[in-house]
TrEMBL record:
It catalyses: [protein]-peptidylproline (omega=180) = [protein]-peptidylproline (omega=0). It comes from the Eukaryota. Signal peptide: none annotated. This is Peptidyl-prolyl cis-trans isomerase. Keywords: Isomerase, Nucleus, RNA-binding, Rotamase.
Amino acid sequence: MKLVHLYKTKKMSVVIETTLGDITVDLFLSERPRACLNFLKLCKIKYYNYNLFHTISRGFIAQTGDPTGSRNGGESIFGILDGKLKTFFEGENEPRMKHTKMGLISFVGNQERMIGSQFFLTLGEDLAYLDEKHCVFGEVVEGFDILEMINEVICDTDERPYQDVRITHTVILDDPYPDPNRLVVPSRSPSPSAERLQGGRIAPDEEIDEMEGKLPAVIAEIQADKEAKARATILEMVGDLPDADMAPPENVLFVCKLNPVTNDDDLEIIFSRFGKIKSCEVIRDKKTGDSLQYAFVEFEDQKSCENAYFKMDNVLIDDRRIHVDFSQSVSKIRWHGKGRGVTHYDDKGKKVKMIIMTLAGVTIKIRGRILITQRIIREKATNLPNELKIDLYHQGIKIILKGLEIILHLLVKVKINLEMKETDHYHQEVKIILEWLNIIRNL
């Protein structure tokens, strides 16, 4: 078969339709004319329809082009037309073309660079050890997202996918080569048959029932685990967990929304009915000693902790409905044990220094600061003209107002106590701060 080089500057595309989506490749007609002719004519006779991606090696290659799916089959268009002696032919090696990037399409060759119908798509970069035997003849121009999906397919230890990925159809956008006389082009795409679908495992459109054959108890455990992971992912998205896979201490319970009057002994007595408690601590402000309205309860064993978790959520303690959880304590607050305090972490897991006070304490300090500032301004302005007195007084008030607005913004935004916004205590103190803001604005 004689090749004419009339298309040296022209690139030609083929769409490879797969069960995961479409991939468009440009062929290197001028650099690899014989390899491109082989590929185009095989596409034209629908040779690749329903071919299995029998080998997928993550970050390396995805190989197909064997109608038997056995990895050992396939023949070139010359073998189909002229007999078994021409099953393979020598692929071009000039000019040198290397496997340098993801998305190259290359015919599989042996030590003598003999190639047939099998080809692969590269799934990684700088695969120099493929250069000597295999023949690059094109590149992917559209469908890199499909390549990524192929790259993530789950395979066994032999790199064979558990669920089939197949070529369903190939579309030639333009064929510059004349058809050989003996080439028979089908009028329509062939229907899937047992012969064409051989070598597969789980069909691409087959529903996989993960629960089939499992006991009800095992199914319930799997479903509970999935729900827990989904909740953890949501917490990670909203910032309550730095990592969805992070595991909390299994015998430590986090308790929040406590009444400020609730102390360590109260909690220990209440939770001890579920099992032996190693330690129990209500976390308090280091300076004022005020309860921060959350605590940690450490049990002797995990089973007791689990029982308390299921029984104590939303229980009324000192006129407050508490909330218990396992995971919250590991996100941004880490308890070091009774009497050793807690460490706070930012979103990146780094330690941060935080001063946490109850809103009542903040309100009292704001009131005192306002009164002191007002008195200082009045005293220092006694010998000044009235215009300057008024001006100085209002400048001070503006500073106080700005500071109050910033504090209020932070108090609302920062989670000082978990889910504290739902308590009457919180709303009452915010109301007090808002009243003071209104008083200052009317001065």
